[in-house]
Specification:
A ten-stranded mixed β-sheet has the order 9-7-5-2-10-1-11-15-19-20, sandwiched between helices. Strands 14, 16, 17 and 18 form a four-stranded mixed β-sheet that branches. Strands 3-4 form a two-stranded antiparallel ribbon. The protein contains 13 helices and 20 strands. The chain has 423 residues and is of the alpha/beta class. A hairpin with a 2-residue loop joins strand 3 and strand 4. The protein is 33% helix and 21% strand. It binds inosinic acid. The site of inosinic acid has 20 residues, from helix 4.
Length: 423
């Protein structure tokens, strides 16, 4: 069984925990897009592990973790994450592989990301400043470096000279930034290449062979559908395809090999970074949910904006990803609320809008149409069976399922593995 896990909102849906649970049945766990802009925490027997780039499946013996060609890899971040995990006693020896075709993040990508974000002309996107966008831009412009290119010393030197000359010109002329020395980057990246050599693989070959042998593959999406470069709230998006389709291009397996795509959505909505957010809370609810839900980013520490569950946005995710089921996370965060709203449609200039719009101006002027549901006003963090959830919590989940036209298959009521309800 080959399953893709995708974020159905703006990222941070709690995919890490769902992936961790589903890892048990998987033989291979594969990242297919994004880079170290992602961040998730997995708690195993009370111990916290923070992941940015490496699949959390690495915590389990006998599983192979792959970083696909669709991921952009910052070698500095990769090496330090490997060291961090080893420091916590995790065995990394032949169970972690990186596609030779994965593109590599360079210091000029991070600097360009930062300089663009620092511009005071109102165009900042609120990126994680990890160099993700500039690295993907170079991939598409065909001036990037893949992991296999770093391993070829002569080719790397020749190409880097040209690429760096252009980058330095942009940095100095557009941004008044002094630029980078060839020797420094070359030596550092050749050193990274030496360190990463043992992880290099042909991702597509490995996965297709595994599929032939009937192995189970879990594709781990980072970020979320609304941050997708094509289907998100452009330009307030990330630079990759977190949607299910990204799993194919990002790892080299055919769409015919995917059996199932599971969406993950919070019982409410959050977003970090700039951009439209139709169902954002007023300040009072914002405070309660931000604090109870610990809505602060793992990667940047920024507070996430929070809001009501947005059924239109989630329906858009169901459609784009072909979701057949959804995991609803953090339901317990709503425990104390008297009244819970669900957005079922929008209004724009008085007219009903039932599909998620592309136009940024429309997106920014949407008025949500809400229905109201009574809260359950009780602690559900220890509930382990669906039927033991309070009636109002079950009604809330049922309504989400109805609105999306798919089954809610998993409900998460806390960060520990045990706090999971299989419906
Ligand atoms: P970038 O991916 O660093 O270029 O950032 C682009 C947008 O995606 C910004 O709004 C970020 O806050 C958002 N973003 C990137 N990674 C994540 C994530 O893992 N969770 C939530 N938002 C993210």
């Amino acid at each position: 069984m080959n399953t893709v896990i995708v974020g159905a909102q703006w990222g941070d849906e709690g995919k890490g925990k769902i992936i961790d649970i589903l890892t048990e049945k998987a033989d291979y766990i594969v990242r297919y897009q994004g880079g170290n802009n992602a961040g998730h925490t997995v708690v195993v027997r009370g111990e916290k592990f923070i992941f940015h780039l490496i699949p959390s499946g690495i915590l389990y013996p006998g599983k192979i973790c792959l970083i696909g060609n669709g991921v952009v890899v910052d070698p500095r971040a990769f090496i330090s994450e490997v060291e961090y995990l080893r420091g916590k006693g995790v065995k990394i020896d032949g169970n972690l592989l990186v596609s030779e075709r994965a593109h590599i993040i360079f210091p000029y990508h991070r600097v360009l990301d930062n300089l663009r974000e620092e511009k005071k002309d109102g165009t900042s996107l609120g990126t994680t400043r990890r160099g993700i966008g500039p690295c993907y831009a170079d991939k598409i412009t065909r001036v990037g470096f893949r992991l296999c290119d770093l391993l070829n010393a002569e080719y790397f030197a020749r190409r880097l000279k040209d690429v760096l000359a252009e980058k330095n010109e942009i940095l100095s002329k557009v941004y008044n930034f002094k630029g980078f020395e060839f020797d420094e980057i070359y030596d550092t990246y050749r050193d990274y290449a030496e360190k990463m050599k043992k992880y290099v693989c042909r991702c597509s070959g490995i996965l297709n062979k595994a599929i032939e042998k009937g192995k189970n593959i879990l594709f781990e999406g980072a970020q979320g559908t609304l941050l997708d470069i094509d289907y998100g709230t452009y330009p307030y998006v990330t630079s990759s395809n977190p949607v299910g389709g990204g799993a194919c291009t990002g790892t080299g397996i055919s769409p015919t090999k995917i059996d199932k795509i599971i969406g993950v959505a919070k019982a409410y909505t959050t977003r970090v970074g700039e951009g439209p957010f139709p169902t954002a809370f007023s300040s009072e609810h914002m405070r309660i949910v931000q604090s109870k839900g610990e809505e602060f980013g793992f990667t940047t520490g920024r507070a996430r904006r929070c809001g009501w569950f947005d059924g239109v946005l989630a329906r858009h995710s169901v459609l784009i990803n072909g979701l057949e089921e959804i995991a609803v996370t953090k339901l317990d965060v709503l425990d104390e609320l008297e009244l819970i709203k669900i957005c079922t449609a929008y209004k724009y200039k008085g007219k009903l809008v039932e599909d998620f719009p592309a136009d940024l101006e429309i997106l920014s002027g949407l008025e949500p149409v809400y229905e109201e549901h009574p809260g359950w006003k009780q602690d559900i963090s220890n509930v382990s069976k669906y039927n033991n959830l309070p009636l109002n919590a079950r009604k809330y989940l049922k309504r989400i399922s109805e609105l999306l036209g798919i089954k809610v298959s998993i409900v998460s009521v806390g960060s520990n593995r045990e706090q999971t309800i299989f419906v």
